[in-house]
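Please decode residue identities from the backbone states below.
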């Protein structure tokens, strides 16, 4: 592309911006899950923009909380299925699912002993929240964002959309938007362990990710191994135990963190982590057969030296990673030269690589994040939200927190005020990336000398950093909008303790469900 932008904005990130990015008049939000919906509300009510819209690729709002009916599988349109499953019960209490000013109603079973909203109840809350925006046409359903491409400095973003309505049939539409908020990141991209032999299992259809889980049906009397012990793996193991061959094996690296509660079950056997998998073909040829069909059986070789033979299926619940690589940004040599966009040094006071000459600079585009980016994250974000090299791009929901609804609420309010120039940010890319360098260095130091570290010590999982992060954003927002002080989510020692107590409450709720024929974190009305 041809640019009239002064070269230093691309080839020397330490210089101040050549000009202040204009206040956007038109803002597009990608994705109508919880993060996108609350971003829409907050930009409309707390920002000062002429036009704010959501583009949502699926036929309805809700993101992961929208479980499409099975008959959509016959459609010729692309599908982006949710990783949820029928009858799912959440792990977060209503008070931590409530957008500011919109309390989440208590579930009907709350007084009986099950206060956690179900999948259906959470979707109903989001649908009610979104209804006025659907009615006013501010949410464009069946509209896939295929490309978000950075234009010259201060000139916004070129967006290519695909219309998947009945009339659209995938027709592409090109639009220009002053600013873009990306609110889709994680669940398209399942994280698989790099265990030797697992790729072969996947190619044979013997290993499945939790993203594909729709219930235990089809596993009757099969020998199953579940990998990991976070919420999804615990639910899968508990549901398998009802129908599969017992014991159901659950491979873990360490005892579960209390935030991933599950009930003890004699039908589930905890085993150590898997070092490798092998596959054998079992069965005898029928008389006269030259090419007998044999049944593949899996052998899991464990870290403690033990072996599990004759397994039929492996389920992997090792999470997801953010990869919105449909966002293309201008190549900046000091940031994008390394294939994974790594810094030469993560030290907060480190200097960037020397700038390149204008003769070496081209204006090609690169994905904002690549599969090689390590640690897994959307890189180059100021305070985990504003794209440092161009503050007219933002991400809401870029990291995992205990309470993602609340985090999306405060982050999108912060973004609205930054877009409006009501909250100041540093005037150079390098200064805006100080938060990222600090966090990378903090994670690096925690990992020094640590063998087989927990998944919580990683850039994209906030863990104990959630409280100071949310509190800091809230303080900045309230300075500008003090009238929100009484309605915004609160991050404090008290709320952190309340979240910890929530996990104890979940254990009691699991017992309640089990006593009523549910179990496996399923509603009692769902048959296993």
């Amino acid at each position: 592309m041809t640019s009239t932008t002064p070269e230093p904005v691309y080839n020397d990130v330490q210089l101040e911006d050549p000009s202040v990015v204009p206040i956007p008049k038109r803002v597009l939000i990608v994705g109508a899950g919880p993060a996108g919906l609350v971003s829409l509300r907050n930009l409309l009510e707390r920002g000062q923009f002429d036009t704010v819209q959501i583009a949502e690729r699926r036929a309805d709002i809700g993101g992961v909380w929208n479980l499409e009916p099975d008959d959509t599988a016959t459609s010729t349109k692309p599908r982006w299925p949710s990783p949820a499953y029928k009858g799912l019960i959440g792990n977060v209490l209503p008070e931590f699912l409530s957008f500011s000013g919109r309390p989440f109603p208590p579930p009907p079973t709350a007084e009986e002993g099950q206060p956690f909203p179900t999948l259906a109840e959470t979707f109903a809350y989001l649908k009610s929240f979104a209804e006025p925006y659907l009615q006013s046409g501010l949410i464009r359903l069946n509209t896939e964002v295929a490309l978000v491409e950075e234009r010259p400095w201060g000139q916004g973003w070129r967006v290519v959309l695909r219309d998947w309505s009945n009339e659209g049939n995938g027709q592409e539409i090109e639009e220009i938007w002053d600013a873009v908020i990306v609110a889709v990141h994680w669940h398209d991209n399942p994280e698989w362990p790099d265990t030797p032999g697992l790729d072969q299992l996947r190619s044979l259809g013997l290993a499945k990710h939790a993203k594909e889980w729709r219930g235990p049906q089809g596993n009757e009397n099969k020998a199953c191994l579940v990998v990991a012990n976070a919420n999804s793996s615990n639910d899968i193991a508990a549901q398998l135990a009802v129908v599969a061959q017992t014991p159901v094996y659950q491979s873990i690296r360490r005892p579960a963190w209390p935030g991933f509660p599950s009930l003890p079950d004699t039908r589930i056997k905890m085993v150590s982590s898997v070092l490798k998998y092998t596959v054998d073909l079992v069965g005898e040829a029928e008389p006269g057969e030259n090419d007998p069909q044999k049944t593949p059986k899996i052998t899991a070789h464990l870290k403690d030296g033990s072996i599990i033979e004759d397994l039929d299926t492996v389920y992997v619940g090792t999470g997801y990673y953010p990869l919105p690589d449909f966002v293309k940004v201008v190549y900046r040599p000091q940031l994008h030269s390394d294939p994974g966009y790594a810094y030469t040094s993560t030290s907060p006071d480190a200097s960037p690589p020397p700038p390149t000459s204008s003769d070496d600079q081209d204006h090609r585009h690169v994905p904002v994040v690549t599969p090689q980016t390590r640690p897994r994250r959307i890189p180059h974000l100021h305070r985990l939200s504003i794209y440092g090299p161009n503050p007219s791009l933002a991400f809401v929901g870029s990291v995992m927190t205990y309470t993602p609804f609340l985090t999306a609420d405060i982050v999108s309010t912060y973004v609205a005020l930054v877009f409006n120039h009501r909250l100041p940010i540093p005037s150079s890319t390098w200064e805006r990336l100080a938060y990222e360098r600090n966090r990378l260095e903090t994670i690096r130091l925690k990992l020094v000398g640590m063998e087989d570290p927990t998944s919580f010590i990683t850039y994209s999982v906030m863990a104990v950093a959630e409280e100071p992060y949310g509190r800091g954003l809230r303080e900045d927002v309230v300075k500008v909008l003090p009238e929100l002080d009484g309605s915004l989510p609160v991050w404090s020692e008290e709320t952190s303790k309340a979240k910890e107590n929530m996990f104890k409450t979940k254990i009691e709720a699991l017992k309640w469900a089990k006593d009523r024929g549910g179990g496996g974190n399923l509603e009692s009305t769902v048959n296993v």
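Observation: Residues 156 and 178 are 4 Å apart (CA to CA).
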